[in-house]
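This entry is set out below.
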Amino acid sequence: MTKADIGIIGGSGFYDLLEKPKCYSLETFCGCPSDDIEVGKLCGRRAAFLPRHGKLHNINPSEVNYRANILALKQLGVTRILALSTVGSLKTNIKPSDIVLVDQFVDRTTQRKQTFHSQDSLFATKVCHISMAEPMCKELRNVLIEASRKVVNIHDKGTYVCIEGPRFSTKAESNLFRAWRMDVVGMTLVPECVLAREAEICYASICTVTDYDCWKDKPVSAKEVRTVVERNVETVKKLLLEVIPMIPEKRTCQCKDALKGALI
């Protein structure tokens, strides 16, 4: 099996990223990932691409097997994950088509398994109190911020409120999130980044803003989201092509040792 160092989790429009990809159908002790994983070269580095919602985009946000996705990438040797996602803006200055490199989250989900160390896994013997004070890898985020300046204007920090989905917010919810001073709203960051930390994989999120949720001019629609996503695919690809060669071979961050002191 061909190994990869960098994992990319994303959606439609990114299937042609890798050079001469090989496709792997994997299984983990938490089940199967969302779809087959492609492994190939990207800017001279070995990279793996995983479609979060499946290639047909038929898996709801709360039905994604996040644990299997992270474990499958871990099996392939991935030590860093660049996660692409679409979000709604909760602030006037964060506009559709903008890119936000979030550094914090607030979790509003209730149905998702957020740890590998539970009674239904191989790691049921211990409880894992993983630190999420800084949810994103600082080293990977710094490289992303530097790379993005060569491609597109970005918001280099922000708080992501993660909702259950697949429905969009009510106006009351949207205005509540604004009152909390959240920056963007989405459906997939949690538990994905939490599980990556438990797996001691560096993780950074690249959020593409598609709309103003429903607090501003009009309620968001799935059609509107898709239109903006398709328009921004090339920009995000350029960012990935810029950042991949800049990622250092050796990790100096704390993510690689995240489990030290976390298991009880």
Notes: Residues 76 and 209 are 30 Å apart (CA to CA).
